[in-house]
């Protein structure tokens, strides 16, 4: 498919995981892609083996308002347009709420929420011209609470509702805004967790498909939402969770019946 031939896409957090897979997906579908991330060496790894003439590496911190202005301005200056913004950059800190420091609270919100705000605000004037779209990275943690995830839940919950609000405000002007909400996805950030068989057994017991998502599976949904194939999809927070949120949280009655 070449759904994005002639289109220009910004992907934040494109050095690893979902962001890297997303950048490669758009490159594979013909787009010119501007890759943001904190580490240029990781961005270079992302584009290895691709048509590098259709990419621009733009290292920087999405929580820096001045940097986000430069990211969007440089994209439009070099390529003349902007069609898609993928606000992917983010990270999580888990632990008891009573031990969550003010610094960690602000760090998490700065990257996970402020970065989305800054990028969206700068991109919208250009997306209005191209009738483009925005895809935000929320999470299943933005749809419900986690034990020990108060800061991350707060940030991702805000991303979900910001997505909905923007979708209402800009749909009539030709810009669609959606988000994806992945559950556990195999990335560098989950490598230590996935080394624990006990931890993964717990996850598998809750995930109907019995495994984490892959970054490529998430990237495919992001590309769909950004494409004209999703031309009437707006304001959606789409779970990519193997059926996790299909459950009402009660135990598996089939297993219980076998124990009676």
Structural class by sheet pairing and helices: alpha/beta
In DSSP terms (H or I, runs of 4 or more residues), the helix count works out at: 9
| CATH structural fold name | Rossmann fold
Radius of gyration: 18 Å
What is the number of beta strands? 7
Shape: globular
**Could you name the ranges where pLDDT drops below 50 across 5 or more consecutive residues?**
none
Distance between the termini: 52 Å
Mean pLDDT: 96
What would you note in describing this structure?
With 260 residues, the chain is of the alpha/beta class. It has one domain (8-259): NAD(P)-binding Rossmann-like Domain (Rossmann fold), CATH 3.40.50.720. The protein is 45% helix and 13% strand. It has helices spanning 17-28, 40-47, 65-79, 102-130, 150-170, 191-194, 197-206, 215-226, 253-259; strands spanning 8-11, 32-37, 55-59, 84-87, 133-137, 176-182, 237-240. Strands 3-2-1-4-5-6-7 form a seven-stranded parallel β-sheet, sandwiched between helices. Helix 5 (150-170) links the parallel strand 5 and strand 6 (176-182).
Short descriptors:
260 residues; Rossmann fold
Gist?
By secondary structure, the chain is an alpha/beta fold. Helices cover 45% and strands 13% of the residues. It has helices at 17-28, 40-47, 65-79, 102-130, 150-170, 191-194, 197-206, 215-226, 253-259, and strands spanning 8-11, 32-37, 55-59, 84-87, 133-137, 176-182, 237-240.
């Amino acid at each position: 498919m070449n759904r994005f031939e002639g289109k220009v896409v910004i992907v934040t957090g494109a050095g690893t995981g979902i962001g890297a897979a997303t950048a490669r997906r758009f490159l594979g579908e013909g787009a010119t892609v501007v890759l943001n991330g904190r580490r240029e060496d990781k961005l270079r790894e992302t584009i290895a083996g691709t048509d590098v003439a259709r990419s621009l590496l733009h290292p920087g911190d999405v929580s820096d308002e001045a940097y986000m202005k430069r990211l969007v301005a440089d994209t439009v200056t070099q390529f003349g347009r902007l069609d898609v913004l993928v606000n992917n950059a983010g990270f999580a800190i888990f632990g008891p709420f009573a031990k969550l420091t003010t610094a960690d609270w602000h760090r998490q919100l700065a990257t996970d929420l402020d970065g989305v705000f800054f990028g969206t605000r700068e991109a919208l004037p250009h997306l209005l011209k191209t009738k483009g779209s925005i895809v935000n990275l929320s999470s299943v943690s933005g749809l419900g609470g986690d034990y020990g995830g108060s800061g991350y839940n707060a940030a991702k919950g805000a991303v979900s509702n910001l997505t909905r609000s923007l979708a209402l405000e800009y749909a009539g002007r030709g810009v669609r805004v959606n988000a994806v909400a992945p559950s556990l996805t195999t990335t560098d950030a989950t490598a230590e967790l996935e080394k624990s068989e006990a931890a993964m057994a717990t996850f598998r017991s809750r995930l109907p498909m019995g495994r984490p998502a892959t970054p490529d599976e998430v990237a495919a949904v992001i590309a769909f939402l950004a494409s004209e194939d999703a031309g009437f999809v707006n304001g959606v927070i789409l779970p990519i969770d193997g059926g996790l949120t299909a459950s009402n949280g009660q135990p598996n009655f089939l297993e219980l019946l076998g124990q009676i």
